Amino acid sequence: MEVVDQPLGSIRTPWRTAAFRRFVWAGLVSAAGSATAPLALAYSVIERGGGAGSLGLVLATNTLPTIVFLLVGGVYADRLSRSRILFLGNLLAAAAQGVLAVTVATGQASTASIAACGLLSGTAASFILPALQGAVAQIVPAEHLQEANALLRLPGNAVKVLAPVAGGFVVAASGAAWALAWDALTFAVAAFLLLGLPLAAPPAPAEGVLADLRAGWAGFRARTWLWTYTAAGTVLVAAWLAGYQLLGPLVAARQYAGARDWGLVQAAFSCGLLAGTLVCLRWKPYRLLAVAVAASGALALPLAAMAAALPLPLVLAAALLAGVGLDVAIVAWSTAFQQHVPEAEQGRMSAFNGLGERLAIPLGYLVTALAADTWDTRTTLLGCAVLIAAAAALNLCVPDVHRVNRRTPQARAR
After folding, report:
1. Residue ranges covered by each domain of the chain
2. Most buried one in 77, 228, 242, 378, CB count within 10 A?
């Protein structure tokens, strides 16, 4: 595979841009709060006497708006100033988490009120996510996009290793309200860091929102590499959620040492994510999209290892490699997307791609529920691994995938 060499000293090039430094700090601050939020949210429901049904309702109301409003968020990311969208979106998320923290602290929280706050947070996310995807290319020169994408993920991945443990101590010692308040504060700080960044609105089209949406859909369908990657990603993400998040803990409880060993698997995966970011700071593959597709197939490794009842050290090694593969895939994909989709369309294209991944969440749960009635847990886990590998392999058979390669300054000059 062809590799573009880059001197080690140029890795820090994006840091020379003050706007990029602020962008990274905003992401780090937000990640520090968001990493503790799921645990705090779960225990805010449990402390109110809620069970699996209540928690499922809360999680659903948080996810539903990102499916319903994500396309609208993508349209506005291509029409308005992305810095303003990011500011208002983070401010709305801060308000939602702040209200939730107050109601939990005062004992006034109920399943309905927690779900309502989750609805607001999910709505904010549906506008934040498309704006984020298009923002990086407005701040950083095209030749440094991969370094920028890797540097953006570096602090977040480090936080994923440390913050859940810290969040667990905070929730155990002080209750869920303090962790939720911290999440609200981090959203507010991130909002003000993002305010005023040089993310001017793309030229506004004369047509309305629906016309923008139709044009975006036409552009999405016209890019074979984009819609095939999204379709494969829907299957891959669904199988990963079913295998890792749902079946993984069950298998760990039955054939390993339960929660202790499952915690080690999660830690190995998080370390792999961090290692993958470091790989992307040095390795510059030419075939960006093909690398992204192939690397995503590594997610099958820990599922196959657990399905085969391999010893725990081998499962940990597989989880580590899966984390490396996933982060390499994300950085390579983000770079390919930013280099091959025009700036004025990135919000909508990102929204269509993100919608496919989010549809995978209910799909993954549904597939697992149906499979559980037919096969045992380990067989279902193996089936998830096969689906991941097959999705990646079939996507690699798409000719357009091998045409979406790194654009160097020399290539653009020609």
Report:
1. 15-143+162-204, 215-414
2. 77
CATH homologous superfamily for the domain 15-143+162-204: MFS general substrate transporter like domains (1.20.1250.20)
Count Cβ atoms below 10 Å from residue 242 Cβ, excluding itself: 27
Instruction: Give residue-wise pLDDT tens across range 36-47.
Output: 777 677 667 766
CA distance 92 to 76: 16
Question: How far apart (Å, rounded) are the C-alpha atoms in residues 363 and 234?
Answer: 9
Residue type, 96: A
Range with lowest mean pLDDT among 163-172, 234-243, 292-301, 399-408:
163-172
The residue whose two tokens read 């923290």 is 101
Query: pLDDT per residue over 336-353, tens digit each?
Result: 998 998 888 888 898 888
| SS3 at position 285 | strand
User: Residue 195: how many CA atoms within 13 Å on its side-chain side?
Assistant: 11
> Which residue(s) pair with 3 in the sheet?
285
Q: How far is CA 414 from the centre of its chain?
A: 35
| pLDDT reported for residue 297 | 95
Q: Cβ of 208: how many Cβ atoms within 10 Å?
A: 10
Instruction: Please give the backbone phi and psi of residue 341, each rounded to the nearest 5 degrees, phi first.
Output: -110, 125
| 118-138 pLDDT per residue, tens | 888 888 888 888 888 778 878
CATH of 215-414, one of 1.20.1250.20, 1.10.10.10, 3.40.980.10, 1.10.1240.10: 1.20.1250.20
Instruction: Answer whether 0.85 is exceeded by the pTM.
Output: no
